[in-house]
Amino acid sequence: MSRPQKAFLPAGDGPADEADEAEQAQWRVAWFDSGCRARYRDSRSQRDFPNGIDLNPRWDPNTTCRVVLPYPTTGMGYYTVVCNICGVTKTIATNGQRDDPRSARIACRRL
Length: 111
Prior knowledge:
3-stranded mixed β-sheet, mainly beta, about 10% helix, globular, disordered N terminus
């Protein structure tokens, strides 16, 4: 099995978004491509979310920060998202389909 290919991407290279540049500057987003392509192109989740999803856990919005992810992805893989302020690191998996995440709310260590 080959190692995932790594590419550093500026957060927010996806569709136009209301997130401001200062909010996005706190994030470092790295994309790791598995080299595989999605097999199942017509699933229910794709019909329900044709423009991607926003990962929004049920936490208090005052204790989370929002990161905009590059959308759409090029295939199956994952993002590693690091906050430059508090140091929190999260991994977000993608499957290379239309229902991939386009943004995420991540719990902040500072708040």
